[in-house]
Amino acid sequence: MTDAVAAGAAADSPLRPSHVSARLDDSDPPWPLRPWIMAAICAAAGLAFHLLIDHPYDDALAHWRSALATGIAASTVVFVLGVERRRWHWALGFALGWGVILGLIARTTAAYNIQGNPVEWPFWSGILAVLVATPLFQTRRDVAPDWRFWKLWQMPYERLHSHAWTDAVIGAASLAFVGIAFLLTVLIGQMFKLIGINLIFDLLNDEWFGWMLAGAAFGGAVGLLRERDRLVATLQRLVMIVLAVLAPVLAVALVLFLLSLAGTGLQKLWDSGFSTAAVMMAVAAFAVLLANAVIGNGGDDRATSPVLRWAAPVLAVAVLPLAAIAYYSMHLRVVQYGWTPERIWGVIAAGIALAYGIAGLWAVARGRRGFDDLLRPLQQKLAIGLALLALFLALPILDFGAISTRDQLARLKSGATPVEKFDWAAMAFDFGPSGRAALAEVARSPQKARADAAKSALAAKSRWDLNGPRGVLLLKPLAERLRVIPEGRALPAAALDRVAGSYMCSRAKACVALWLDDKRIGVLGQNEPGDALNFDFVTQNDAGQWVQGDWAKPAPAKKPAVDLSTARIEVETVTQRRVLVDGEPESGTFD
């Protein structure tokens, strides 16, 4: 069954000669206000995004703020890329749905590890899901007779492929326009600054203005390009032609590479020092991209050059051995070092590449020169499966941290991984609640080396506190490493937290806090005996917060105007202070 454009969709707009419209689909009436509406929506979203993420950089962003900011950004981008006047409420519902989903993913991811960072592998998996799902939605919106008609497996490939490429071209061009808009605004601001008007220049230094400008530029560019998508389709075709020219180059390189491997073996790949799996999967992705550029949207759109027609099946077949090498590389890594969340994601990526490779080989074996007629529907099904898989993996259903914790803990207990080689930082900061619960269990171990390492990992403020040039740093609690001068004068709790998280003391085996006055502390740290010392101030600012840096130092007073030809010149002796360690200065002068 092949879907045609729904009659109901076409009825939404009056009949008009196609040459009058700049729209690719005559079912879409002109929408002159689209650029302004999209610019206003994205500008408002940019301001809201800024208000949500604006916080002191020394403090973690609240999880609910991460979730809401992600949801607003995702739903706004999906809406402006996919909306049309006909069935606009479909696009709104689709965008809001994905905003909620990605917001929840961001909140779950931010709460998973103690750093509170939402941008982890599940987040990127959710982004991949929405990127693949958007052209699928656009195609269903165009051809479905009503909202209940969701036969995902039966969609016109030409329209689906066109939506995917058009979205990519419009998105990339709009991001480029954002850069141009910023450059132009900077030039205008500098121009007015020359005559003493600093308004625009000052606005550019305000983050809220930057986010609004970026949003307005992106939304306006998307609106302008979408209203001229007939021209965009021509640009898309030009991009595909340019990419198709590269297909024979990559095809020849892959043939020579695979033949060379038959003689050299795989060992050179493992000895290269690069991530073999990552390189193989990146090349396989390029092979799929260039093969699709050659075969086009349909039989009438495929390249006619014999060289290009020869290169496409070679690329389609080459994906399978590349994916197999990537999968085997990941297998060896897991056997050697065990499971981690990154390796689980790598194995899944290699499995997806294998699926595309098998589909390409089957299509070429069955279809020969007409392989693309078989490959297109297979790729459509793979895209739908990829979107569903990416969404499933992004949701908090499978806990890769728990899987990795069990495996790594078993390797530690069996002796396969010695204490000094064990990745304590990953257990504390990458494996989520399961990893930290396992560390708490190991901290009670009768084996002192393991228990001390686990305690250090639990006490660390960041993963970098555990990794030094000589490997893992097994640090004592800060109270045992910190010396306060004068002795007996305690540090306020907020000042102690700032000292503990500073670069001077977080990884230092010896740390000194020297009271300079009631609002200023000099902090010295040394990672290893004999190493250079790190020094900085921890001061209390006017808001009562303890921060790193000499914020208590008063700003220089404004000097009166002088006439040097008649001014009195004299030399004054001043007394200043500096910190000495064993008689050697370790700080600049202050006061």
Description:
60% of the residues lie in helices and 6% in strands. It is an alpha+beta fold. A hairpin with a 5-residue loop joins strand 6 and strand 7 (546-548). Helix 9 packs across helix 11 and helix 15 (400-414) runs parallel beside helix 17. The chain is globular, with a radius of gyration of 30 Å. Mean pLDDT is 85; it is low at 1-20.
Which key phrases capture this entry?
single chain; 591 residues; alpha+beta; five-stranded mixed sheet; two-stranded antiparallel ribbon; 20 helices; 6% strand
Count of individual beta strands: 9
Helix proportion:
55-70%
* Topology pattern, helix = H, strand = E: HHHHHHHHHHHHHHHHHHEEHEHEEEEEE
Q: Helix tally?
A: 20
Alpha-beta content class: alpha+beta
Précis, in short:
This protein is an alpha+beta fold and 591 residues long.
